[in-house]
Amino acid sequence: MVIVGIVAGGTGSRMGADRPKQMLDLCGKPVLIRTAQAFLRHSQVGHIIIGIHPDWYDEVKALTEKELDSRVSVTPGGSDRNDTVMNIINYAKSIDGVSDDTIILTHDAVRPFVTDRMIDDSIAAMDNYAICTAAVPATDTIVVSENGQTVCDFPLRSTMYQVQTPQTFRIGDFVGVYSGLTEKEKSEITDVCKLFYRKGHEVGLIMGDQKNIKLTYPADLTAARTFFEEQEENQ
Amino acid sequence: MVIVGIVAGGTGSRMGADRPKQMLDLCGKPVLIRTAQAFLRHSQVGHIIIGIHPDWYDEVKALTEKELDSRVSVTPGGSDRNDTVMNIINYAKSIDGVSDDTIILTHDAVRPFVTDRMIDDSIAAMDNYAICTAAVPATDTIVVSENGQTVCDFPLRSTMYQVQTPQTFRIGDFVGVYSGLTEKEKSEITDVCKLFYRKGHEVGLIMGDQKNIKLTYPADLTAARTFFEEQEENQ
Q1: C-beta of residue A129 within 8 angstroms of C-beta of residue B150
Q2: Is the ipTM, as predicted for this complex, more than 0.85?
């Protein structure tokens, strides 16, 4: 059994909507529900814990009870992403069968197109790494600019990857890495992969997918509807 | 007067279509025509030259004659992107009023959402730089992997930019930079900004736009239709 932590702290400002992005409709259900359903389809997922902004706790709790099943719980999010993951892990520890060795896949609530293959690969990577992340080769050329005015470096495109989620690790390892940080480090290093890396862990890559998009801008929802309809046709 | 070189060498394989991406329909006209129209709306654009794969030359020539006006010409593309730009420049030299100092904006045929503001900024940047490119801050976290298996660096996200087009320079400067290259260098350095950089030129950045997408995957066309309809409503 693995568990899944869905991180749903966004406020949706870039969508121009008055609801967080994960609450927007995707073909009849909120995005968050679609994301949870994608994990529930996988046989090894024993429990999903959604870390949600406290303002949305009641609504999301009612929604998951209506739309999903008893494998799904909701817990209030923390002050930032990693703090929300810590809350999710604290909740997870109360579940029967969860130990420090339990694998948790952490995932953006607004990436509803995670696949069984990505989940399989993430779990398998735990044989070799303390942490792994989904990523895809960068589609655009990437340049570096320190002043925002001129280019100071042209990194080799074939070595550049865009990070997606899931990001996967064992519960005990996260607690070990995170609890040793100062408040300053916590505020500076928001990327969990970088946290593990700084503590000397290799960070494994598993192949994401161009369709595993993060719904950020209104146009992303349009693309998401197309992806969703294709997916339904193929099932 | 500035001129525009539209680079249209793609074969569309990633779109899963049997026509190059720039020939696919965007709300009633091929993408390439939409891109050219975006430049023709700008008062400083005197001429557009489309560099097209030789197999599509006749069809595109007929299409531009039907849909566009006498400011638009078509020339066969070369063996790679820079070679196509060279062909475009050789064609441009036959136009009245074009000299080594003439500014050329080079642009992907499959980016139909270039704006007047980007064109203005590109021309203005020529006061300070020999070359400039449109770019946007990277939306995803970028990591570096040399082996494709593990992460070897976490560059600072705030310094990472995704390159778009237009990429703008003076005709004479391009010829100077490009004609001095060996065949090996030509095949290795496909990025024109990197070419200029290697020759000691500063590369200026002008702000692109999240909507200035390169139509690469089928879902991009769906998003493009939404953008196009919004644009028409706002005009």
Answers
A1: yes
A2: yes
